[in-house]
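Team,

Forwarding the record for the chain on the shared tracking sheet. I've put the sequence and predicted structure together so nobody has to dig through attachments.
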Amino acid sequence: MTIKRRDWLVLAASAAFTGVSWSQGLDHRHAAWSQLLSQHVVLLRNGQASEVRYAGFAAQRDDLRRYLSSLSGVTRAEFDAFTKAQQMAFFMNAYNAFTIELVLTRYPNLKSIKDVGNLLSSPWKLRWIKLLGDTVSLDDIEHGLLRKRGAYDDPRIHFAVNCASIGCPMLREEAYVPDRLEQQLDQQTRRFMSDRTRNRWNEPLGRLEVSRIFDWYAEDFRLGHKGIDSLQRFVATHAPLLADKEAERTRLQSPQVVIHFLDYDWRLNQIGAAA
């Protein structure tokens, strides 16, 4: 896969646009982002998953870019004065909103976000995002900032950031906000763990089948967050969401439970894609 010259120009234009400084300060309610999400995110399976109206985002791209500019206008000094919850909400909303913008640079002519990239640089490693006085990539936001050891140490971030793919935890239908962040992250976790298309007990095979996310980021579930210091303990805590029968739930709480990681679906999470 290669990035065409026009795509680089679009990314450069996006980076330049989002570098505009806004003097009014950041809206920690992220109301503009919430409004876009409420219009263009459609919930599936009783809220366990979602699909995205990318055409709708494209039609309101100016609104999206104004929101991205408000994020890019935050200085490092301003960010450092944020509370921990404000910082986490800022990064998670930034990751999700800039991901939408990245998809729009090629939409509707792509089937997966992985179509944006080349053999030398994945879409997540492209440095085009103006943030905190630097030019960063999506990987920098997720791995260098949100997952940085000692910063937040919260594995629930994996259920909050969305990589524009069907296999990824759902894009939330509202922005993350500091005063409700704990409840929002807990709900995102329950939603993802309840989705039997991604996490389930397979009784005939006698094994727990879970998202590949738990393979890639197993170390994050050993940080001791809320008393959880292993992937097995995390699974045991959420056993009621993964199986219906009491005997199955009991087996899930065993340290010897067999865990199988499912293949990841990288198709774009657009309307109708999962049908």
